[in-house]
Design brief:
The chain is of the alpha/beta class. The chain has two domains: about 260 residues, Peroxisomal Thiolase, Chain A, domain 1 (3-Layer(aba) Sandwich); about 150 residues, 3-Layer(aba) Sandwich (Peroxisomal Thiolase, Chain A, domain 1), CATH 3.40.47. The protein is built from 13 helices and 19 strands. The chain has an eleven-stranded mixed sheet with strand order 9-8-10-11-3-12-19-18-13-14-16, sandwiched between helices.
Length: about 450
């Protein structure tokens, strides 16, 4: 969408400017890879990041697979003391944010661990980065560090609680510490809106810049929930798959039986189109619409009507009709109720076109990274638009006969002009983005 903003100067002269908002940098750590490019390449190849859980060893726990990040080195961005004082979710977020800044050309590759180096901004003021903002969502925050702190006294006599437990585990620490490492001193916000948090963060960055904030804004999601309390908690809620191998996450399949819990982070650089052009940045895609609402229906059960309203609310500011959407990145968690509800919602919005719009579910490969999933799926949709490649849905042996979607089963070349990204969470919170080719 092109937004016309009207300004009146001191002489009373009226002038117009077109405000467009774009994605210029992406950083990620996921079960598929420790960079966004590696994760994207793995996704296009139809690889899986789902393996046996290595952090929990208990034969009585029936949920045995997850999406763990392997060989992650936080010392590329953080000092050793910082690593000890931060939960993994914040470590992942900082790493993703720094990589996004590098990808956007806002900073150079740091030579020393934990040190920031300013990039070669073209014709931009020195304070462009420092006056920017950070919005990062997380569903569970520092849950792993909290669990460790609570279990420590049982293992060690007279164990002392760390003074960093409270500051390190708060939801906002991902955003505030990323801002600290990047030298960003503007708007800073932590969002917790269940599994929609990362998509909400990107959408709120879009709204913030539309309201007049210059930017850039680092926006995304991070979660590190691979812990006993989360595995058993989601399992007890009936949300997790009991399939004991890498095929456990199978969105829209007839035999799907729950999602696979995973961890990760993804952060995008969101900024005004004119600022991006002025400094010669690469533009992945334009954000043209965002919608957020609640089903107002049930604590855990999704509702097609609410999800459909969220899609309509994202389409409205984009000025796109359902006929103009060329690709849907589905929430697609692999739960029986969730996938069915989303398929119904898509049909409510897209009608007879439903059977012809390509749909893919990234969680078939990553598992459910909670807040990080929505952000990574938005980044992947932007990459799909930029490179003209649709990522596949794997593990789909027999599609549910009641789900009438055109599922992408292998990486496909396609000239995608517009994409819609769905993210839905517990409590009936929904967030939807619309991206389009620059």
């Amino acid at each position: 969408m092109v937004e016309i903003r009207i300004f009146v100067n001191s002489c009373g002269t009226i002038w117009f400017t077109m405000l467009r908002i774009v994605i210029t940098g992406i950083g990620a750590v996921t079960p598929l890879g420790n960079t966004f490019r590696d994760s994207w390449a793995a996704a296009c190849a139809g690889k899986t990041g789902i393996r046996s859980i290595s952090r929990i060893s208990d034969p009585e726990v029936p949920w045995t697979v997850c999406g763990e990040i392997r060989e992650f080195n936080p010392l590329t961005c953080l000092g050793s003391k910082e690593v000890r004082r931060l939960d993994l979710f914040a470590q992942y977020a900082v790493s993703a944010a720094v990589m996004a800044a590098q990808d956007a050309g806002l900073i150079q590759q740091a030579k020393d661990n934990g040190q920031r180096a300013r990039g070669e901004e073209k014709q931009m003021p020195d304070d462009y980065l420092s006056s920017g903002g950070v919005i990062i969502g997380s569903s569970r925050g520092g849950i792993s560090m909290i669990e460790h702190a609570l279990l420590k006294p049982a293992r060690i006599s007279k164990a002392r609680m760390s003074p960093y437990v409270m500051p390190a585990t708060t939801i906002s620490m991902a955003a505030s510490y990323a801002a600290q490492k990047l030298g960003v001193g503007g708007h800073c916000l932590g969002i917790s809106n269940a599994c929609a948090s990362g998509t909400n963060a990107i959408g709120e960055a879009y709204r913030l810049i539309r309201s007049g904030y210059t930017g850039p804004v680092f926006a995304g999601g991070a979660d590190a929930p691979i812990s006993r309390i989360c595995i058993q908690g989601y399992g007890a809620a009936g949300a997790l798959s009991r399939t004991p191998d890498h095929t456990a996450s199978r969105p829209f399949d007839k035999t799907r039986d729950g999602f696979v819990l995973s961890e990760g982070a993804c952060v995008l650089v969101v900024e005004r189109h004119d600022c991006a052009m002025k400094r010669g940045a690469h533009i992945y895609a334009e954000i043209s619409g965002y919608g957020s609402n609640t089903d107002a229906f049930h604590q855990t059960r999704p509702h097609p009507a609410g999800e459909g309203r969220a899609m309509h609310s994202a389409l409205a500011p984009s000025e796109k009709t359902p006929r103009e959407i060329g690709f849907i990145s589905a929430h697609g968690t692999s739960t029986p109720l969730g996938d069915s509800a989303e398929a119904q919602a898509i049909r409510q919005v897209f009608g007879e076109r439903t059977a012809s719009i390509p749909v893919s579910a990234m969680k078939s490969m990553t598992g459910h990274m909670l807040a990080a999933s929505g952000a990574f799926e938005a980044a992947s949709a932007a990459m799909a638009i930029d490179q003209g490649i649709l990522f596949p849905t794997i593990n789909l042996s027999e599609q549910d006969k009641d789900i009438h979607l055109s599922i992408v089963r292998q990486a496909t070349r396609a000239d995608i002009r517009t994409a819609l990204i769905n993210s839905f969470g517990f409590g009936g919170v929904n967030a939807v983005l619309v991206l389009q080719k620059n």
